[in-house]
Amino acid sequence: MNDEIVRTINEWNPIEIYPLLEDEYYSEIRKIYEKSNQTNSVEELAEQIHVIFTQSFKKEFDKSIEECQWIAEKIIDVID
User: Fold this and answer.
1) Cα distances (Å, whole numbers) of residue 30 to 61, 74
2) Which of 16, 41, 50, 63 is most exposed by smallest CB count within 10 Å?
3) Which superkingdom is the protein from (predicted)?
4) Total structural domains in the chain?
5) Torsions phi, psi for 19 (to 5 deg)
6) Beta strands in the chain (DSSP E)
7) Are 49 and 25 in contact (CB under 8 A)?
8) Averaged over 9-15, what is the pLDDT?
9) What value, to the nearest 5°, has the Cα angle with vertex 19 and ends 76 and 34?
10) For the chain, counts of helices (H) and of strands (E)
11) How far apart are CA 48 and CA 18, in angstroms?
12) Range of the domain at 43
């Protein structure tokens, strides 16, 4: 897994978990990593990020698709 993706998601901390453990979002990051290897589309990755976190955290995840798009851009930048 890409350390930069781990760092990006942990810095974002979309569920606002404090204190945040290094592996708190491990299963979500693993899924995002897999999806990021399958696409270069920011929009598609943003949708996948939104779906992944919504499935994992339900109503606790309240970030917009636009915020997910910003994260997807950062992820695509670090994997290129």
Assistant:
1) 18, 16
2) 16
3) Bacteria
4) 1
5) -75, 145
6) none
7) no
8) 97
9) 25
10) 4, 0
11) 25
12) 3-79
Residue type for 41, please? S
pLDDT-based confidence at residue 2 (cuts at 50, 70, 90): confident
User: What pLDDT sits at residue 27?
Assistant: 96
Residue bearing tokens 């781990």? 6
The residue type of 4 is E
Residue type, 37: N
The answer, as to whether pTM is greater than 0.85, is yes
36: domain CATH number is: 1.10.340
C-alpha to C-alpha distance for 78 and 4, rounded to whole angstroms: 6
pLDDT in tens, 52-79: 999 999 999 999 999 999 999 999 998 8
